[in-house]
Amino acid sequence: GCCDQTFTLRQLLEERTRCGKRTIVTFVDFAAAFDSVHRPALWKALKAESVSEKIIHLLQAAYEGATSCVKIKGETSEKFEITTGVKQGCVMSPLLFNLVIDVIMKRTFNGRSGVRFDRDNHITDLMYADDSAILTEDEIETESILQQMRELSLSFGLIINVRKTKVLTSDGSIVKILLDGTELEQVHQFQYLGSTITEKKVAASEDVIRRIGMAAKTFGSLTWCIWKKNNIKTGTKMKLYRSLVLPTLLYGAESWTLLKSDVQKLETFQMKCLRRILNISRLDHIRNETIRQRCLNQPLIEEEIQKRRLRWFGHLCRMDPARLPYKMMWRSRPSEWKTIKTAPKKTWTAQIKGDLNARGLNLEDAKTQAQDKQAWKGIAQKTKKVADPTTRYWLRERRKPF
Q1: How far is CA 204 from CA 201, 210, 216, 254, in A?
Q2: At residue 142, what are phi and psi to the nearest 5 degrees?
Q3: Of 172, 198, 224, which residue is a domain's last?
Q4: DSSP label at 399?
Q5: pTM above the 0.70 mark?
Q6: 10 Å Cβ neighbour count for 357?
Q7: Lowest mean pLDDT among 40-44, 77-81, 263-267
Q8: Is there a single domain that holds both residue 214 and residue 166?
Q9: Phi, psi of 68 (to 5 degrees)
Q10: Does 260 share its domain with 331?
Q11: Each residue of 36-65: pLDDT tens digit?
């Protein structure tokens, strides 16, 4: 899923940034990808991938004579034949499109090593449907890959959208990448599969700010129809909050590396939401803990993120060792790589170690216990009790008595 890709990319950039290794990430965009696949090339690709002739003939029969029409202001146009692309809404379409992309990538990266992330492993790219992230170390290699990728894509009817293809460097250094004589735009941050990837930063601070903004819009859209209604029970409101607002706020949180300031922002946002649900102002001088108790014992955001992070860790432990997220989690740093002085102190691995230590576990013991999915689920639910951020702030800032 998306979490596999975002976790892998975040961990790759975290490790290489801490060791002073530059990584160039090129986010490739295809123009109208699903509608542009050249069908004769698709059938050839299926044959090259050893798909049986019977299956290919069945697919060809399903696509032969496919028509469509357009409805405008209640009037339907005449039917017209569709000769390119994969069918929209068909259960086979994602698989067929992925096969095309896979063939393109295999041929593009044949003989190329990509970027290194541990003693024995390299990575060339990350793919999710038509969302592609190309990983390189220098400009010349990047341009060579993109040019070859462009030529192979054209043979399948796919066109790289130069205007929407972006470049990001892990250290913020300026690069000049050309494709078809056009310089690709270099960005400071990019939205990859719903998560914000930022140059020079390991912490997910930018993603937290963006998620709070999106969750605020979701919460605000329900103000008059749900939160302001006195005839709707608090329990019902909390179910809606947990099913609509919280997933928007914490999307991708299992792979976040968080600073204390990030957690504080998330906790502050949640308390604003809970107070509005209960129609209680800060001027009422009711403690945050009491507010959460009235809201069906809503846990702190920090506790919620701990649960998600531990569940994801358990999933990583049970993964096939050949998968990238597993390799990234249990990577072994090359002996010649050293942490630079300016390296970020906070890391995702340090966070998960802290979560495990609070439960009396180390990484190896946890890896063994996580093989039992149900037992690990129980461990993940036992959240480490943390002090209310507002309380911590008050204790830190209060004046000493004379």
Answers
A1: 8, 10, 18, 11
A2: -60, -50
A3: 198
A4: P
A5: yes
A6: 13
A7: 77-81
A8: no
A9: -150, 170
A10: yes
A11: 999 999 999 999 999 999 999 999 999 998
Counting every residue written for the chain, the total comes to 402
96 Cβ contact list (under 8 Å, min separation 6): 37, 42, 46, 59, 86
* 49 within a domain of the structure (yes/no): no
Q: Tell me how far apart the alpha carbons of residues 344 and 19 are, in angstroms, rounded to a whole number.
A: 10
Q: Are residues 189 and 238 in the same domain?
A: no
Q: Is residue 18 part of a domain?
A: yes
Answer yes or no: do 174 and 206 share one domain. Answer: no
First to last CA, the chain: 58
Of 198, 233, 267, the last residue of a domain is: 198
Give domain status of residue 159, yes or no.
yes
Range of the domain at 337: 202-395
- β-pairing verdict for 24-28 and 131-136: antiparallel
CA distance 210 to 151: 36
Amino acid at the residue 273 = C
pLDDT over 50 at 3, yes or no: yes
- Identify whether the C-beta of residue 169 lies closer than 8 Å to the C-beta of residue 24: yes
Residue 115 pairs in a beta bridge with 123
Instruction: Report pLDDT digits (tens) over 372-396.
Output: 999 999 999 986 655 454 444 434 4
Q: Are residues 352 and 288 in the same domain?
A: yes
Nearest in space to 378 (alpha carbons), one of 387, 388, 369: 369
Q: Tell me the β-bridge partners of 25.
A: 135, 168
> Which is nearest to 198 in space by CA: 396, 10, 7, 337?
10
> Measured between alpha carbons, how far is 251 from 228 in angstroms, rounded to an integer?
26
What pLDDT, on the 0 to 100 scale, is given for residue 383?
65
Residue corresponding to tokens 């005449």: 78
Question: Looking at the 3D structure of the chain, how many domains does it have?
Answer: 2
Same domain for 235 and 300, yes or no, is: yes
Contacts of 15 (CB under 8 A, 6+ apart): 117, 331, 333
